[in-house]
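dumping this here so i dont lose it
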């Protein structure tokens, strides 16, 4: 069995290649008893600021995995910041252990930093299918491997964390503005894995208390009526991203908390 969290489909796409028995982490988090048993148990999720998202950490910490092969695959866009090493250390802290942890570079969906149009154009340079085939093979063969922490990647993430400690977080709340062209379809609310959005008079209202900062709401708005709040400048406000093989219905099914 495989557990996944996805905002824009990259991690779901990977999960679909690795196992047919798929479970959404935001949905599983609603269950109180989380004891899982299988021959192989996997987790696939995006990288958020050089670590796995808090909701994935919460899921792992509060679940029991009865298996002799526990693996984690992290999708990222440009720098993984030696995440495998970080995740392994955090697992140990929780009294857990993975036999295999790796990362795979895909389209970077970090809207504030990257132009989604350009990111889609360079997708082919990332050789995703080749890397995915290797990961698939490793998992079938139950390979034991924690991806090596490259010096430059460790330094990159350490530099980022040091800068963050001085300058504060990159994202300021409230994150989003709702523009005039909002049609009140509620897609933003349906794709939110944390149930942070509700409609009032046909317009979305964000409660940022539990916001995972995953940006699913802004990415999937069909009229692009959700924009970053004016304090933050995004690179290309006209372009959004969803993995080409993943439908909006699949994202809603994975994340919907309404
Ligand atoms: C809030 C946020 C933080 C991110 N941080 C990183 C990062 O530190 N390094 C990186 O290479 N990609 C980063 N990304 C890009 C995603 O990890 C990447 O696009 C991922 O494949 C998205 O997966 P999904 O489509 O399943 O949501 C970030 C994206 C978001 C939204």
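and the seq i came up w/
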């Amino acid at each position: 069995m495989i557990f996944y969290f996805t905002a824009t489909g990259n991690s779901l796409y990977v999960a679909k290649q690795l196992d047919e028995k798929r479970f959404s982490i935001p949905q599983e988090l609603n269950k109180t008893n989380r004891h899982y048993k299988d021959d192989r148990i996997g987790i696939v999720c995006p990288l958020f600021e050089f670590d796995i998202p808090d909701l994935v950490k919460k899921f792992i910490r509060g679940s029991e995995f009865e298996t002799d092969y526990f693996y984690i695959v992290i999708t990222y866009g440009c720098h993984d910041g030696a995440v495998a090493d970080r995740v392994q250390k955090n697992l140990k802290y929780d009294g857990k252990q993975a036999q295999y942890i790796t990362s795979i570079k895909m389209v970077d969906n970090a809207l504030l930093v990257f132009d989604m149009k350009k990111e889609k154009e360079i997708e082919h340079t990332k050789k995703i299918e080749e890397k995915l085939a290797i990961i698939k093979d490793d998992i079938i063969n139950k390979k034991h491997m924690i991806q090596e922490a490259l010096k430059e990647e460790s330094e990159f993430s350490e530099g980022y964390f040091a800068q963050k400690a001085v300058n504060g977080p990159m994202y300021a709340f409230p994150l989003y503005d709702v523009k005039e062209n909002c049609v009140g379809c509620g897609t933003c609310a349906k794709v939110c894995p944390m149930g942070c959005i509700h409609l009032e008079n046909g317009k979305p209202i964000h409660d940022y208390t539990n916001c995972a900062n995953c940006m699913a709401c802004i990415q999937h708005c069909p009229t692009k009526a959700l924009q970053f709040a004016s304090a933050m400048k995004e690179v290309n406000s006209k372009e959004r991203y969803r993995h080409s093989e993943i439908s909006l219905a699949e994202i809603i099914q994975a994340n919907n908390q309404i």
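DSSP finds ten helices and twelve strands in the chain.
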